[in-house]
Amino acid sequence: MSVKETLLSFKGSFTPSERKLVQTLLNDYPMVGLTSAGEWARLANVSAPTVVRLATKLGFSGYAGFQAALLGEVDKRFQSPLNLLESRRQNFPITTMDTAVDSYTRASQQSLEDSKMLMPTQRYNELADILLNNKGKIYVVGGRFSGSIATILGSYLRHFRGDVIDLSPVSQNSRERLVDMGPPDCLVVFDYRRYQQDVVDLAVSAAGQEVKIILFTDEWLSPIAKHAQIFVPSRTEISSAYDTMLPALMQVEVLFSIMLDRMDERTQRRFLAFEKLGFSAR
């Protein structure tokens, strides 16, 4: 679990001074946490010992351990596919009894199980409520690879409502859509390391226009996370040069299944209309 995930899912309580530290870090993650304890304390207008107490409360041995975890995240967030391949050959070795298919399948199963643990059922229910009942338009967007998952979600959502707009891949036309975006619209973003800058820029601009942001991302969390009302993390590391999109697809499929359970008569008529046109949810 990343430091940001630890902060956002912390089950205990923070003091007012600790909350200031948390908010300061989330506003400029992870850079603030890589400064000295004194500098972070100054930015949050609290005492330096409060920084150390926060690190200890989160389960680290001290501020040095906290920073070591952040530095490890920075390295992982921006590793190239070739660097990832070398490290993953060590983390996911193929034994003499394995084939490449066996190894990849086992790693995929573990990724799906880990991702399931990161996403409680209640958060799926919250997502379904928003996507079914949001009074504004629903926009979806993703990056070079994750854009295909965004398109799948958009296709599913059109079976429930007609105001779904796919902005993938990000282009000048996508950016021009910002002119018409605002409350109560919702933007569903898929962004995974190494985090695509044009996707990040689009989401940040939309958030600045009070558009509700829902983010699907990895365990290290896209920079968009601090602007998101709900974020959906997944474990994407696998025995490949590229992170896997299987958990993201699973999450979309689970969400669609929950939404189907809530189908009303109006939605049933809409599904029938799709069928008559020769299109189904598949």
Mind explaining what this structure looks like?
It holds the Pfam family SIS. This protein has helices at residues 3-8, 16-27, 37-44, 48-57, 63-77, 81-91, 100-118, 121-133, 147-157, 172-176, 197-208, 246-261, 265-276, and strands spanning 138-142, 164-166, 186-190, 212-218, 230-234. 53% of the residues lie in helices and 9% in strands. With 282 residues, the protein is of the alpha/beta class. Helix 3 (37-44) crosses helix 4 and helix 8 (121-133) crosses helix 12 (246-261). The longest helix is centred in the middle third of the chain and has 19 residues, at 100-118. The chain is globular and about 65 Å long. The protein has two domains: 3-76, Winged helix-like DNA-binding domain superfamily/Winged helix DNA-binding domain (Arc Repressor Mutant, subunit A); 118-276, Glucose-6-phosphate isomerase like protein, domain 1 (Rossmann fold, 3-Layer(aba) Sandwich). It has a five-stranded parallel sheet with strand order 2-1-3-4-5. The two termini are 34 Å apart.
